[in-house]
Amino acid sequence: MSEPLKPTLADLRAEIDRIDAEMHVLLIERGRVIDRLIEIKTRQGGGSAFRPAREASMMRAIVKRHRGRLPVDTVESIWRVIISTFTYIQAPYSVHIDVSRGDAAIRDSARFHFGFTVPCTPHVGAGEVIRAVAASGGDLGMFALDGSPGAGAWWTQLVPSEAPKIIARLPFVERADHPAGMPVFVISKPLADGAARDVVLESVTLDRWHPDASDALRTVGAEVIGSAADGMGLSLLVARPGGIAADAVSAALRSAGGADVRGSEVGAHADRFDASALRERAI
Question: Which is nearest to 168 in space by CA: 247, 251, 50, 250?
């Protein structure tokens, strides 16, 4: 009995061509589904095309199921471009970025997560990004979590109900060697639905910092991720679990001796997902 013939290079290249053609056909089919989605949304009165909770869930699922030689960075980037571009097709938008800490890292993040089809507009300072998004018809803004030197309490600009709000923390999937791993916030005008609320962000003002404040915040699962002088007092950006009471942060700070404590929600995002342990996979 003769052994089966091994595939030649030409056979394997033909197989790759077949797979590439099928992938292209599927992208075209996805576009047709988006066309129908646009028709339905138009009949229902429109609405934002951004769905941060769904995007975070999709990205986690993609990374969890990935196998083989292809780096997960490439897979994540491809899907991010697909998602962002089809969102852009539904409702064109721009991404406003803060380059005050340097251009390279923030632009890498914008291009990794939104591709090259979506326009990218640079600004100097988180405040400028917030104002640009507020004045837009439906754009996004992006800036580093730690802001730029002298950025001040930029989060207080997100307090008014009609002001932009934080809708995502990127990257959705974190790992030590992520090619666009600088932690950034994404803001948009307030979303009616589709928001992720695993982590809620609050702008909190109080008289001053108190020694027991950190411990008090930890008792409710909260942490300070930004602080700046605010007039005669202190302004904090606090992250808390979405499942706890809305006034838990203010109550914790008062219990630690804080006076004149006032808190306002300024956004929310999906839980952080660390994929470092998933990097080593058998082929």
Answer: 50
